[in-house]
Amino acid sequence: MLSAEDRVHPAFARLPPWVQEKLSPKAIDYIRRVHHWVETECVPAERVVKAQLAVNKWKTPPLIQELRVKAKKEGLFNLFLPKSFGDLSPGLTNLERTMNCHAPETGNIELLAKYCNEGQKQKWLLPLLNGETSSAYSMTEPDVASSDATNIACRITRDPKDPDTLVVNGRKLYGNVAWNEDLSVYILMACSDPENPDPWKRHTTIIVPKPTPGFRIVRNLTIMGYDCAPEGHGEYIYENARVPAANIILGEGRAFEIAQGRLGPGRIHHCMRLIGQTERAYELALIRATDPRKKPRGKLIGEFDSNIERIAAMRIQLDSMRLVVLNAAHTMDVHGNKSGRYAIAQSKIIVPEMAANIIDECMQMYGGQGLTQHTALPEMWMYARFVRIADGPDAAHRHQVGRDQLKTAAAIKGRHDGYAKRYEELCRTWGVEKEEFA
Amino acid sequence: MLSAEDRVHPAFARLPPWVQEKLSPKAIDYIRRVHHWVETECVPAERVVKAQLAVNKWKTPPLIQELRVKAKKEGLFNLFLPKSFGDLSPGLTNLERTMNCHAPETGNIELLAKYCNEGQKQKWLLPLLNGETSSAYSMTEPDVASSDATNIACRITRDPKDPDTLVVNGRKLYGNVAWNEDLSVYILMACSDPENPDPWKRHTTIIVPKPTPGFRIVRNLTIMGYDCAPEGHGEYIYENARVPAANIILGEGRAFEIAQGRLGPGRIHHCMRLIGQTERAYELALIRATDPRKKPRGKLIGEFDSNIERIAAMRIQLDSMRLVVLNAAHTMDVHGNKSGRYAIAQSKIIVPEMAANIIDECMQMYGGQGLTQHTALPEMWMYARFVRIADGPDAAHRHQVGRDQLKTAAAIKGRHDGYAKRYEELCRTWGVEKEEFA
Amino acid sequence: MLSAEDRVHPAFARLPPWVQEKLSPKAIDYIRRVHHWVETECVPAERVVKAQLAVNKWKTPPLIQELRVKAKKEGLFNLFLPKSFGDLSPGLTNLERTMNCHAPETGNIELLAKYCNEGQKQKWLLPLLNGETSSAYSMTEPDVASSDATNIACRITRDPKDPDTLVVNGRKLYGNVAWNEDLSVYILMACSDPENPDPWKRHTTIIVPKPTPGFRIVRNLTIMGYDCAPEGHGEYIYENARVPAANIILGEGRAFEIAQGRLGPGRIHHCMRLIGQTERAYELALIRATDPRKKPRGKLIGEFDSNIERIAAMRIQLDSMRLVVLNAAHTMDVHGNKSGRYAIAQSKIIVPEMAANIIDECMQMYGGQGLTQHTALPEMWMYARFVRIADGPDAAHRHQVGRDQLKTAAAIKGRHDGYAKRYEELCRTWGVEKEEFA
Amino acid sequence: MLSAEDRVHPAFARLPPWVQEKLSPKAIDYIRRVHHWVETECVPAERVVKAQLAVNKWKTPPLIQELRVKAKKEGLFNLFLPKSFGDLSPGLTNLERTMNCHAPETGNIELLAKYCNEGQKQKWLLPLLNGETSSAYSMTEPDVASSDATNIACRITRDPKDPDTLVVNGRKLYGNVAWNEDLSVYILMACSDPENPDPWKRHTTIIVPKPTPGFRIVRNLTIMGYDCAPEGHGEYIYENARVPAANIILGEGRAFEIAQGRLGPGRIHHCMRLIGQTERAYELALIRATDPRKKPRGKLIGEFDSNIERIAAMRIQLDSMRLVVLNAAHTMDVHGNKSGRYAIAQSKIIVPEMAANIIDECMQMYGGQGLTQHTALPEMWMYARFVRIADGPDAAHRHQVGRDQLKTAAAIKGRHDGYAKRYEELCRTWGVEKEEFA
């Protein structure tokens, strides 16, 4: 249990009581240390990292590399793997991990740990877990509507002369850019059996190492103008790219099985990061609102009651989206990723849009400076906007939820028919004429 | 713990896992029974009640009276009093009470139970607890901005010739209408000591029985056109109204102490009711969306993907506002009403507006019928709209939250100054030039 | 041209310059007189009319009857008929008629004037033009999705034994209530030829006089709780109702032709009324904001900068929706109702929703009183909400506009292909490598 | 007058009839030619310009330079100057100029043309009119709330030893970046007389040539990550910068006079550009919606009725904001910039926010590609977002409008008091009891 002192500590104060109650002593210790780590090692380092990137854009900056070494020493590396991963996991529940861990690494590591055979794990997973290399997830395509993943058209065939070799052809968007010197591997979802009558069994996931002959980068995709170096977002072509068949994960035709396992937690991780970022945007707004140098019409920005209301509205929305994400994490802990599907979708739909709106309001409070590099607000906004599309646009998730909900209509109709029957009884009992409505 | 079967029962299925876990066996039993009660005794009775009201508008309808008798027999009456009320309470936490209980009765009963002396309780509280009479809360005034309650101007003076008699003068809005035959009492907040230097000690709360000489009803206030009979919303005048001084609650000048205690839980009760109503509106929308008779352009309403998205959006918002209210209830259980102030305000700001919007969308799905008496939707909307103003408009609550938040800015600024200092260190360490931002 | 003095007169001041320029001397005179009429005869009479309705709900109140006589004497009756109606018209353009004229009378009169034969006009139109009787439009049905009017199922057949008599069977919603003593006639749209291969030729419009054997009222539909007496909104049944075949308007199977002609201007009239009502709501908000009795936290409501911003937002939205409606009226004047279809839909989609939101904000500024009969705000809101559904819900209109817009995509694509070709030329000219995007 | 053919030409088709009617033959000719120019010379050249900027970021790209020469030859250069500028003007009204002209050049040229003496015009204005140099406007400051321009603190003093020389000290944000080789001049607003009792007479506007000793650029401000080269947005310091006193514009203490003249039309120009950009974003959305390669769940994006509704909503909003801007332009033409103040503010508040929302929706329709450089959408969004802050944030404009509106309350109250008096008369006439409301 949290001590009274802990409860008002910034690392814990925003957590609702039901979550505070559930934290194990181990989690409390981790959160306290991670909070300190973020406050002293991460946030203050941001501009140094940017300066190092200005020198070498496509390389993990030295400060980050050193931080990784330090994090390992302090036991703060790879905290995200859930208990089911045994020794690889620090033993924290989804609910307990409130720190940041970056995409697509978490999702990819979880995928490899869950679905690879031992040889694959040794070769590809361990260097990722050690932070020595980084990985990309290769799914989106420019030529089809890949938000409906059954449309994915990038083709995997077997070389007829060398059946141990796969030949890949297609064009992909997203998945980090291979220019990053530390990138070692693309995890590719592509179509291997287009004629299979079951559309959910046509696709296969394989590991494409870097470099692979026939693979080339077209460009780095900017996101709202940001290059997102050193990871970037690649646009790239597989042109008779040759990959060993041993790099197939789980088995041919099993890509959807894998994708389901990957995307659920990944979506919640995005939402967790956004909550952290939005809290920081909110803190900047509070600082601006009380900046003694900024007095339009003679009052502090925070003395205008319109801004007082805006601050309250932001605070209240932020906390409501935190409740949604914490509930999704807990639902996954208790009932599993699959049963948590609805709660995950609820987070994915609500959080990125609300986060983007709150950060936008914070930028507006900063006036002319708000849109510039004077603060991290524009980059935070960009990330929130990105997540509204990453792993599927809002509309696709709403569509899925809505269709599931409509399946519940029949049972509800049954209950309402019960009301009607009982109403008739009551009319008779009380001598009241039954009203007919069309 | 809930059984697997219970977990999908409509009475429990919408509760998040962290709430399901916390339900005591007693609460599970109550919820199951109350759910059945509502499904079989309340919802189907609505139109019968309306028919009985058409015969006698200002009298609790016979069906309701009978239901009260039955509810008492089944132990489902007065479930809302929290554990701190001892024998009067069924022993349920705020979190566990997910059933409806009507305003202003709950708030008034809680007020009387908490602040009255024994004699007052015998005389006024017991008949209310028995459902034999009903009560009104008399606070709002037309002539001042009473959302800032220090402005309340209705005057209580002592009769100089008879100091045991209070003389009341003023005009009030809201508080039920005395035309209701069952109304027995107004709980009046008025100004007894306007010169007191402490504005929070100028007001006194007294019990005004019905009838009282000098008290008269001006009109019943309709809410968006609804008369809300038999309770109504009164507009009335105290003109030299004479009330025994023994009817002072808690003591002179202590009205704000009482008001604080009353309004917190009352706001959450309003929100709980709204969640129940909005669920019902949502169910009606699902039924409409699958009504085989309604096929614009040849498709069911629920086959249009725009409506599929709308249904998802409603579901997701509804569940997020439930999380907010459940968290507020739990926060009050764990930390008390006062510490729960923020969580209560969060509910009060989010829920009525969101509920009104969802119900409005449901009405729109019903087309021309949606605004008529064919469904309960318009009345449900009216109640949601009413709660956006009742117990203070949104803006007043946002103002309070915003001002509290701004008090946290200094500590946050301190942490951010820490970032700046650490950034300077890192610049030196890494040989990077420090950037200056205005 | 307007004089400088006229330009700041409340009757003209809100009109944009391009509209002020277009007003004929006749229109200027009419507007000035109608404005005076509304200010002195209509607005102040509202509560008197309500008092008279309380005495006899289903009868045009005596004050209104007297006003009609006076209006005729002053030449202010039936101002709405456009120039194309010859002597029946006062010769004003759509743009020039900025005064209120009530639905469904305007639409029905226009329909009868446009499509009836002389005998029908003598019998049914003249008493309406004289304001001696009133009329209803009977289209919506409870059993089908009648927003798609091809679904209308109410049946007209010929009596096989008496081919001069039509037999009608069906249930309708909306169309005023026959309880109104002054109602003389229903204009009914129903299905006469369900097997016709052209779905736009299956329906016929007929005049159903009151009383007609086989016609009966089920109930008055309340709109958000309001009974809208004395006109009301009826729910009624045609059960072997017998109507002379001479009452067919324009010809069998021509109902859609008639409906098109009726609904366009009717929608703009609704929007015009809403602008007038919203202006009035806005004026009430300004009065409240400067009411010296209302000082929450010691300041006038209009001294809070949050409210200053709200007032500005309302003003700006109100004027932008006026520009939309005036443009639609002018487009109809210049290019006809059919070419004005898009501009009409633009008004119908934007105005009711925006008006309802503005009025809602005004109610909120009034605090507890805002939802009651203390002002006309709740009724104005109800009318705005009603119009969001009347003559088709927003979504149906958006659907129509969206489909029309998608037809323009091919031409736009052609222009963009031109850009691509020209880009290639420029690449060659400037020696720049062409970028390929998927 | 437009021919029937012209009316459906893309250059004119979106103009409302009242604007089409007002176009002079000269304007029709200009618009037709400018439309062709934009379609063939500008839009297709965008990526070539980007490629040239990649080679030399801080220099007007050669293609642009050539376009300027061509534009001059075709008489399409400097079209924006209004008729009052005599020979400098092509004689078009605000209403007629629907083409793009870039900021801050238009505003600066207008300022110099209006307020400079002949010598200043020769030296600074002519090269700008010829497109040989470019200019910056230097107003915003990081250290004060400069949206309230009376706070501007950058100091101008006279050198006591050399009174013909001004000494400037201060830090500024915005105003293009001096790295642009073509930038010749900053138009600086600064404080020259801080003790003047009239706060509107404390500031002076001067021309600061480039280079000026004591002036230095700190950095280029990125806007949402974009560098906006070659113009950029500078952050820069005046540190004892020395400027000849002959560079004072209009006279000491007259900066506000100048600022007023500059900002009105500048705001409308921003809004005009945004409408053009949003139209283009909309066209891209239509093309995406009908792209045969994009078929999520087997249907074109434009076959989902949710997207059909989104397209309609975008179209309708776009056209409503065009009506607002055209009305503002016309109001300025007819009544002057000062009387047009409200209409300008209406545009400035409505257009940037609505444009950003529409472009955001278009990006979302593009899925993963929508946020990348595959289209111009992200840059267009960035410009719209920028304009929500440029020349003052929304809230500042709403504040100004709201305060002006509140001044009208007294007259409105007078009219409403008239209603009350007349109501009393009517009560007497009709024998109805007058209702009293608080």
TrEMBL record, chains A, B, C, D:
Keyword Oxidoreductase: yes
UniProt-listed Pfam families: Acyl-CoA_dh_1, Acyl-CoA_dh_M
Domain Acyl-CoA dehydrogenase/oxidase C-terminal span(s) in chain numbering: 256-404
GO biological process: fatty acid beta-oxidation using acyl-CoA dehydrogenase
Matching InterPro entries: Acyl-CoA_dehydrogenase (IPR050741), Acyl-CoA_Oxase/DH_mid-dom (IPR006091), Acyl-CoA_Oxase/DH_mid-dom_sf (IPR046373), AcylCo_DH-like_C (IPR036250), AcylCo_DH/oxidase_C (IPR009075), AcylCoA_DH/ox_N_sf (IPR037069), AcylCoA_DH/oxidase_NM_dom_sf (IPR009100)
Organism this protein belongs to: Cryoendolithus antarcticus
Similarity remark: Belongs to the acyl-CoA dehydrogenase family.
Protein name: Uncharacterized protein
MF GO annotations: acyl-CoA dehydrogenase activity; flavin adenine dinucleotide binding
Residue ranges constituting the Acyl-CoA oxidase/dehydrogenase middle domain according to the UniProt record: 136-233
